[in-house]
Design brief:
heterodimer, A: alpha/beta, Ubiquitin-like (UB roll), Alpha-Beta Plaits, Rossmann fold, 3 domains, five-stranded mixed β-sheet, four-stranded parallel β-sheet, 19 helices, 17 strands, B: alpha+beta, Glutaredoxin, four-stranded mixed β-sheet, 7 helices, 4 strands, 48% helix, elongated
Chain lengths: 588, 153
Amino acid sequence: MVKVTSEMREKAQTVSLVTIYLDGREVRVPEGVTLLEACRMEGIHVPTLCHFEGLSPWGGCRMCVVEVEGQPNLVASCVTQVRGGMRIWTSSKKVREARKTNLELLLSNHPLDCQLCDRNGSCELQSLAYQFGIREIRFQGERKVYEVDQSSPSIKRDPNRCILCGRCVRTCREIQTVCAIDFANRGFETVISPSLGLPLGESVCVNCGQCILACPTGALSEVSHVEMVWDAINDPQKFVILQTAPAVRVSIGEPFGLPPGTVTTGKMVAAFRRLGFDRVFDTNFAADLTIIEEGHEFIARLQQGGKLPLITSCSPGWIKFMEHFYPELMENVSTCKSPQQMFGAVAKTYYAQKLGIDPKDMVVVSIMPCTAKKFECQRDEMRASGFQDVDFSLTTREAARMLQEKGIDLKEMPEEDFDDPLGISTGAAAVFGATGGVMEAALRSVYEILTGKTLEKVDFYSVRGMDGVKEATVEINGMEIHVAVAHGLGNARKVLDEVKAGRSKYHFIEIMACPGGCIGGGGQPIPTNLEIRMKRIEAIYQVDRSLPLRKSHENPAIKRLYEEFLGEPNGERAHHLLHTHYVPRERM
Amino acid sequence: MSLVYQDVEAVIAKYREEKTPLLCILEEVQEKWGYLPRDVLGYIAQRLEIPSSTVYGVATFYAFLETKPVGKYVIRVCRSAPCHVRGAMNVLETLKKELGIREGETTRDGKFTLEVTSCLGVCGVAPAMMINDVTYGNLTEDRIREVLAFYRD
């Protein structure tokens, strides 16, 4: 659904207005907007399926048709611009009949088994069928039957549920510039296909899951780890520990009816404790650890003339993207594992030893705003403990559904604290969830480590927010450190091409695969749009401000981890457990 | 570089000046190889610096481009409206019966592939079909048998 964005309002302020007649009402709307936008500004949310915020208009589904007086045919409002004097009817008999017919035609080639669908309750086709009061389908015809593509460790593709709106294709192409999928074949045989007709798991798909957020139906969803996690919880032999990512605490309230941007840390901990996890820990602990390792890596490269710019490595979608499209920048990418994987490696070594538990009996589960984390935890490199360091990775959506299955309402939960010691973290870790956060957290620590002085102003506002590419310059010991932050892989490309061409002045670059960073990840509750992303980001900084410690190197549990177990940052043991390497992959 | 890619390279070079060379290249490569193997599509995509998903989309969109091996003679039955009302379905049925294959399949001897296509532009002689580059119109069961006999020999 298109929201009236600040951009649209800006347009409204700077552009002259034209008069149109909307359902007989005289209204003034900005020149140059589409009929769809004009209607929405006036509070009429014309139904759409192929239209999606942030993507180029398509005009394919014909759900948004309206009647324009003087024009013989109905027009698709998403691709028609307003002109002064236009008389538009949005719910005339002709319009209603056309929309209803279109819906019926879509439904006539759709499996009508909503109860068995991942998107039951959040499906746009289902909602429209309800709103239009569809009770029967007049068209009975041939139905296409496709095999469900389960080849990817992250994303399941069910072309039988696809309505060919192309939102996934445009997301993959326009936002992420990955172009893993496109329309193939023609006419009734048209299908969304990974490149060259290969299974998704063999394609250049980076597993970011933005296509899932864009999909109006259940054609795209995550590969579920829910059953495996239940089995682990119900197995008395297994010691099951949970880690929750920074971005989950600001979004998991949404499936329970809380407004986007509600911080639910304490309730979330209480809920998952009741779900049956033996320990509820925090990925934020590992985020602090990441900053120590990555901060020292950066300092070492800076002082010893190592490869610069250093590029962050927390986002597994970005990592696979780099392996496919920018293998020449592999040495620029930090060797640090992501917080999810650092957590797993520490849990199955340090914590298992501390508890006297055989790591083979330990199951590490993560709740992530991410679908690529499922791929990441299964990578060959992620077995530093001698076992798969993170066994299962749930998306925020899957985790919420597990609570709902058990009958836990997050809203009713008391506030509880994470367990010790892998549940202790700082504000620097909290901001990992938003674009710019890793950079900000790193700067807070790098500055203090290098200067030995206390950083008074810990807030780096210039790296925050939804601008695609952000930059900042920080003076440390008289040296100017140039940093950049990009989120969404299309934005990342802009920065990376500069680096590749040798035109980049940056020392340190943060890249997140998803728009907005992890709070906008492909595993987050649906809908995830610009407005919701911004509210979740606000909540992330609220978490940061509320914590007594806001710099990773001040985390007492991290200090203890180095003293008791790891030794030095970037030392031998740290390297073995907390660092990784990458593999070049084919571009096709 | 394998021999195949050298040939593909030559075709690409030929259309270097074109702004949108993809279709020309696909057509000509297919002429040489009979169809467009997956690896060749990937190679073309890489050389033209366009996503392979786009190349695959184009190659599968056009009825005259093949992404799977085809027989010596490709029979394309027009299924557009004018041919349809003049009995295109009968044409298709007759061909299926005569060749012993279904739509999209190739005879075991590798001689014939049967396909349907959009309008061939010869609605005046509907129903129509094409065998490789030659168009046949005003098709009846007898006429179809006659034509097939010609290609069989």
